[in-house]
Give the backbone structure.
Amino acid sequence: MSLWRRFSPWAPQVSFDQPDRFEGWYFKLCDASGQSFACIPGFSTSRTDPHAFIQFIDGRNGRSHYERYPLGDFSWTRRPFSVSVGNCGFGAGGITADIRDRAVRFRGQVRFGPWTPYPAGLFRPGIMGPFGLAGFLECYHGVVSANHTLRGACEIGFPGDPERTWNLDGGKGYIEKDWGHSFPKDYVWMQANGFAREDLSVFASLAAIPFKGRDFPGVIAFVRGEDLGFVTLATWNGARVTRMAVKGADYEVSVARGPWELSISARQTGASPLQAPAAGLMDRVIKETVDGSLSFTLTRAGRTVAEGSSRGAGLELGGDPDRLAKWFSDARSRT
């Protein structure tokens, strides 16, 4: 694999000749009013069901849809970077969509402002730090753009619903990706960048990571701001989860590293079913919303350096939140 592909979070990491793998790019688009939708192009190399796909989640009505394509309908280009599924293209410049003859209708063009990529280097290929170089993990994560502006419009129509136009002028976008063979058994994921302070973006994911037949709790999180850069709190740089609770639709997470502490409160609204990978097969069903709410406070040595509240937050829960909370509680008791 070329160095460009290995250390570029947007570049494909899985080849079609690797069986039982998946790869997907997550594009979340939030309009100026704070309502969001997401589209996820990707592919599965499952030996029993290889195919390409685009998933859709509509925050306005809570609808979701999984549109299948032959694996050969997926392609990508390096310069300019883009991935394509059927007649839809997703890349550095934006999204161009033209689906008219399938169950879901998706048409339009949305242009992206300059990306805000997570910094990467030889020994830290992205948000996963040195763990991103390990070859034994079930799932890998990359942050492609933490924040960018949107311009344009598109129409989305789900089976049984009329097409609805999204005016995205003045909106905000976020892009990440996942690849590997399976999502974690138990995890919580949250993301928001629809704050009044437009340069802010917040992300956190807590998961049970399998290693040598056992699981250990891991966290990756950041706050990004123009004056802050990326403040990263992760297992690989010594961060620890000091609080983790999920009660119904409410999430509470606190992560500390040295003088830094990030506290997040979020609420999942109208969660929709989303297909996720298990051993490369896209048959696991999880719940996600793109119309949640999230508030955070970032302190350094007890002094607040950034805070805010956002609509259009992405929130996702997989597995058993109580079991995940217990793992983090047990990890705290051992330190």
DSSP finds two helices and 22 strands in the chain. Helices lie at 3-7, 321-333.
